[in-house]
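User: Is it possible to get a 3D structure for a protein together with its bound compound? The compound here is S-adenosyl-L-homocysteine. I've pasted both below.
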Amino acid sequence: MASIPRLYVQQPLGEGQSVTLARDHAHYLFSVMRRGPGDPVEVFNGTDGEWTCAVADAGKKAGVLTCLRQSKPQLAPPDLWLMFAPIKKARTDFIVEKATELGAARIMPVGTDFTNSERLRIDRLQAHAVEAAEQCGGTYVPPVDDLAKLDTVLQSWPSDRALMFCDEAKVGQDLSLPAAPGPWAILIGPEGGFSDRERAQLSAMDQAHPVSLGPRILRADTAVVAAMALWQAQLGDWA
Ligand code: SAH
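Assistant: Yes, that's possible. Here is the predicted structure of the complex:
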């Protein structure tokens, strides 16, 4: 049986609700996927869970779906922010995709002293998060923030949010994730690592916990996946 297409829409969902399709969704469903009237489509909007819909009207540039029944309840990820220093475009795209699949609640690109990256297109990164959520069966799309400076973000850091500071300078030391409940964030540095100034700023924060990701230096995109897996298994929704 052909798989059921899955779409993220920005419209309310509920029993009997009509969903009007934007041009790109109509093109995808009817021209690319060759679906037609009566065919099922799964739809989510980030707040109302996942709904199984049926195609009510199929056109080349537009279309309408009708919501039949809720097929998944809304599932919010744990309260985990991912902060990372952007790297090369394809690797930054990878980070956003993997962070969405692994269940980040918010994705925050931060500029650090040694960040050197091409211009960031937040709209493109957000579109990657949407695609990853569509593909992985999630019902939540993490917002991707505009680029902010790490020191500015740290200056107004919430007192109740623990920070998993992944520090490559701690390679070889046995530093594990403390079992503190509550809101968390993960911080991954750029290819160039953190500056002494940033390390000093972080070590002065009670909320920051330096953590090692093992005896090898990982690339930033690998470190994101490793850190999120570790956190999810110990404190998140895998635990
Ligand atoms: N330029 C640095 C490496 C940076 S790796 C150097 O050569 O020393 C990019 C980021 O991934 C780091 O800033 C850190 O946040 C994370 N990272 C990579 N390997 C790690 C490890 N073994 N332990 C903790 N964090 C790590």
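Residues 3 and 24 are 19 Å apart (CA to CA). DSSP finds six helices and eleven strands in the chain.
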